[in-house]
Amino acid sequence: MIIPLIYLPDYSTAVIVDIKGGRGFVRRLYEMGLTPGTRIRILKSSGPGPLLIEVRGSRIALGRGIGMKIFVRPDYITPSNP
């Protein structure tokens, strides 16, 4: 199942499958380490405000519009903080 990043719950992990957008947008995300095949962890997705993710050992805040353009395959979903 492939879904937009924004729909994953807090503390779940996923693998990036695709990023939809223009060349500049995609290039900027690639420069931040968000490339297809990369495993990410959602630290904060619920509530208002940006998404907080962990990728390649770094924490990154992304706006919700950007989160709708990043498509992921969930690994597993953990309902609470491990």
Task: Please describe what this structure looks like.
With 82 residues, the protein is of the alpha+beta class. It has one domain (3-76): Ferrous iron transport protein A (FeoA) (SH3 type barrels, Roll). It is 16% helix and 39% strand. The chain has two helices and six strands. It has helices at 23-31, 64-67; strands at residues 3-4, 13-19, 39-44, 51-55, 58-62, 70-76. Strands 1-6-2-3-4-5 form a six-stranded antiparallel beta sheet. The protein is globular. The model has no long low-confidence stretch (mean pLDDT 90).
Tell me the fraction of residues in β-strands, as a range.
Answer: 35-45%
Number of domains: 1
- In round numbers, the mean pLDDT is 90
Describe the sheet with the most strands.
6 strands, antiparallel
The assigned structural class equals alpha+beta
Count of DSSP H/I helices: 2
What is the element layout, followed by pairings?
Elements (H helix, E strand, L loop, with lengths): L2 E2 L8 E7 L3 H9 L7 E6 L6 E5 L2 E5 L1 H4 L2 E7 L6
